[in-house]
Amino acid sequence: MNNVLENRAWRYATKKFDAGKKVSDEDLETILEATRLSASSYGLQPYHVFVITNQELKEKLRPYSWNQSQITDASHILVFANTTDFGEELIEGYVQNLSETRNVPLENLKDYADFMKSNLLDLPVDIKNNWTARQVYIALGNVMQAASELKIDTCPMEGFQADEYNKILGLTEKNLNTTVVLPIGYRSDEDETQHYPKVRKSKEELFTHI
User: So where does this one cross the membrane (predicted)?
Assistant: First the structure.
């Protein structure tokens, strides 16, 4: 089995973290850079990631996370929050960045900016919210794979009260909403689920070659 598949086979949704083991600053930066480099529609990255290490804050979030121990025992908690609504500022900010990064005059990018605006700005708010949330999951997949390559454990979690996370982290006033939470760290020897065979559909059931 090659490394790509070995890393995916090694990864599992860690149920119990070793609270005494911490992710190094170097490895954390690698994981965050993998997040930053993730693909997104149009490259707009309509989300923000909060990196939580403060133990008091973790304890505050745990009751609103179905009291799951991963929240308090993991080394870090990554809270992915999607932009709930947006206007021209999202596209114009991206185009400005594109111009500066690739040394392209802004006027040369006007048609592309107008194309994005025509496709996105008139969408209803609920559709925008749904679309930006889907972008989060692209980044989430990249982060989980990057972590597995470093032999760092993760547990993607949707079992939490988003409204309470939003209050505690002050997200609503920032036009953000908690989409998914990702504890990262190292599995505890006591976590029996690490020994369970991975249950997935067979290739014959999952894939159709046309």
Answer: none
> In 3D, which of 116, 153, 147, 123 has the Cα closest to residue 40?
116
Rounded CA-CA distance 107/33 in Å is 30
pLDDT of residue 32: 98
Confidence band of 1 (pLDDT split at 50, 70, 90): low
Taking each continuous run of H as one helix and of E as one strand, the counts in the chain are 9, 4
Cβ atoms 80, 182 nearer than 8 A: yes
Q: For residue 206, what are the contacts with CB-CB under 8 A and spacing of at least 6?
A: 200
Residue 21 lies in a domain: yes
- Pick left, alpha or beta for residue 185 (phi over 0 → left; psi -120 to 50 → alpha; otherwise beta): left
Dihedral pair phi/psi, residue 178, rounded to 5°: -65, 125
Average pLDDT of span 133-138: 98
Contact yes or no for 9/63 (Cβ under 8 A): no
What is the value of pTM for the model shown?
A: 0.96
> Mean pLDDT, the chain, as a whole number?
97
CATH number (domain holding residue 133): 3.40.109.10
24 in any annotated domain? yes
Please state, in angstroms and rounded to a whole number, the distance separating the CA atoms of residues 148 and 31.
10
CB 19 within 8 A of CB 70: no
Residue 118 inside a domain? The answer is: no
